[in-house]
User: Fold this.
Amino acid sequence: MAQAAAVAKPPAPPRRRRASATPRRLPYLLIAPAALLMLGFIAYPVISVFYYSLQEYNPTKPWRNGFAGFDNFVHAFTDDPLFWDTLVFSAKWVLVEVGLQLLFGLALALIVNQTFAGRALGRALVFSPWAVSGVLTSAIWVLLYNSQTGITRYLADVGVGSYGTSWLSDTGSVFWAAVVADLWRGVPFFAILILADLQSVSKDLYEAAEVDGAGRIKQFWHITLPHLKDAIVLSTLLRAVWEFNNVDLLYTLTGGGPAGVTTTLPLYIANTSVDAHNFGYASALTTVAFVILLFCSIVYLRLSKFGGEGK
Assistant:
C-alpha cells in the first residue's frame, strides 16, 4: 500500500528559476552610452555658463579675469539699460510672433483639413517654409525687402511709397518687416501640429452636433477648440521659447538695428560674448534668460492646466 501511494504521488512542480536581472537591464545598458554622451554635451555647457556667470572673464583682458561673485548680475539689473531694453523687446517680439503664428497656423490647419481638390499639394505648399533654415529665410526676405529690386520697388511703380525706401532701415517699419519674415517660416509649425491633432477628432461628434442644431461656430468653440487645447498649449510654449532665443533670423535680417531697436536679449548676449569678448557678463545674462524662461514656462503650464482632463 505504501509503495502504491508513493507511486501515485504527483511529482513536485519544478522550481521557478530566478529571473535574470540582465534582460531587464539590457535596454538601459544599450542606451547608456548615448545617454551619457548627450548628458555630457548638455550638462557641461550648462555648468560652464553658471560657472562663468560668477567670473570676470575676458580673453582679451586676462589681467582682469577672476572671481566676480554676483557683480555681473548686479550690473545687469542696475547699471545696464540695454539689458532692460532688450528684455522688453524680447517680450514684445515673443507675444506678437507667437500670437500671430498661432492665429494664422490655426486658420491654415482648419483649411487644409477640409476635403478639396489638390489638398495634398496645398498641404505641401503650406508646410514647406518650415523646412527652410533661419539664415536662408533671412536671405530670401533681405532680397524681397531690397530697395532696388524688392517689394518696395514694385509698390513705388504703382504709386505706393517712394523709390529707394528700405523697410529694414526705417525704425518705424523694421519691426513689422521682421515679423512678416518670421511669420512666413513660423506659421507652418503651428499648422502641422494643429492639423495632426485635428485628424484625431471623431466625426461622430460633429454629426451629433449638427443633429442638435449647432452651427460651425458652435462646433468649433465646443468641439474643435477644447480638443486642440493641449496641442495649442504645447506648440505655443515651444514656439515662445524658440522665438525668445531667436538669433539667426534677426541677426541676418537686421543685425539688431537700426539703432538697436530689434535687438533681443539673446542677440545682445551674442554680441556681448562674440564681439565684446565679455564671456563672464554674457554668461550672467544667459543665466538670467534661463531663469526667466523656466519661470514663465512653469507658470504657463500651471495656468493652462496642460495635460488635465479639460477636453
Remarks:
- Residues 100 and 183 are 8 Å apart (CA to CA).
- The chain has a mean pLDDT of 85.
- The longest strand covers residues 55-56.
